[in-house]
Structures are given as structure tokens and as C-alpha cells.
Amino acid sequence: MLNIKGIGPKKINTIWKEMQIESLGELLYACEENRLLLYKGFGAKTQQNVQEAIEFYLSNRESFLYAEVEALAHQVQEMLTAAFPGQHTQHTGAFRRQLEIIEQLEWVTTIPEQELTNYLVAHEISKVEGDHKPWIRFKGNQQLTLSFISTTTSHFARQLFETSCSTDFLEAWTTAYPLVDVEDEALYFEKASIAVIPSARREDPAVIIQPPIPLIQPSDIKGIIHAHSQWSD
Predict the structure, then answer these.
(1) Model confidence, pTM
(2) What's the pLDDT tens digit per position in 30-69?
(3) In 3D, which of 6, 66, 2 has the Cα closest to residue 31?
(4) Which spans in the chain are helix H?
(5) HSE on the CB side for 196, CA within 13 Å?
(6) What is the sign of the dihedral through the CA atoms of 217, 71, 108 and 81?
């Protein structure tokens, strides 16, 4: 409940001891029945804010900011690279495109599906049952879905490219340049006589016919200025 905007320890104490509510689901139900209005410190506006905050939290609890999942993404990558040195495994999807909101971490890999499953289950990452083809999905303690496409070495670059673009970008690209299997993703751009478009720029199809703007790299940053003023006062 401390994750819900608008209620702190004092109100949670009232919710627990006086209302005898022990879960967000129960609290949301109480808001819908206007029961919070019966207790000191809870007005109509507070109840409405609490209800909206719970609904927002529940609908977004499996969505994460890029920075929140970055460490886990690299940790899983390093684990798989070390455990399967003869195979190719690389980030793809929203994380590779560096989107602000990440709903799942995705990889393209040549690790056979059963070997991958055995390894992750042994590390307390359970398989999500159901038909998610072509994806194989897992979930660990962080409640973040880890999705994999298991492919062959010859098909790896194409699979990586197809899953590293927005739908609009991929449709525009394949219309102009039909995809075939290649050894390296960069060869697609070489064959099209286009400078390599980083995955983080593969959102708007317009970038295909416009010179891509170079992405700012950490090495480009010379310093960071953090300043305060009295303007807000």
C-alpha cells in the first residue's frame, strides 16, 4: 500500500486496524462502495484519489521504466553468454530499441529451447505455459516477463532485425528491401546503400530515406551541470 499515491503510514494504519483491509483489491472494493468516507481522515476527494491511484498501479504493475530493468537485462545476458559460450544471444525488442517503458525483456538466441528452459528453471525462473509462438516466455521473482526466440545461426541476423524495429519501420523496410538471411545485421544497410540505422532509431519509417541523426553517446558528454534557483519559490 505504500506504493499507492495519497496514503501514508497513518492512513494505512487506519485501513488495516479499523477497516480490517489487508490487500489492494479489498481497498479498491471499499472505495467503490464509499466505505472510506466512514473513517476519520478520508474525505470524498481522498477516496477518489486513492481509487484512481490503485487502478493506475494495478494496470501498470508489469510495466517498467528502462532504467529499472537495465541491470537485470544485462545480468541475464551475461549469465547466458557464460553458460552457453558457443551460442549467440542478443537483446531485442523494446529494450534494444531503448524505449522508455518496458513490458518484457526480449532476446534472440541460438540456444536450443529445451536447454534454455532447463537452465532458467534451474535458476528459479519459471516457464510461462501457453502458446506464445514464436516466443518462449519465462518469469522470475521480479514479475518481469523474459521472452526468447530460439532460432538457427543462419537465421539469427534476420530474426534480430525483424524484432528490433517498430511495426511501421519494418513494414516500410521490407516493402523497399525484401529480407533474406544474412550473416550480420549490418549487411542489410550495406546492401541498401544506407548508413546503419541503430535499433534505437528504428521507430519512424521516415528515417530510412533521411540521413540518420547520430545518437549521443556517453563519450560525447563533457560534463553535467546541476543548478538550483529561487524561481519556484
Answers:
(1) 0.73
(2) 999 999 888 888 889 988 999 998 888 777 677 889 998 9
(3) 6
(4) 9-17, 24-32, 44-59, 66-83, 93-96, 113-122, 156-162, 167-176, 186-191
(5) 9
(6) positive
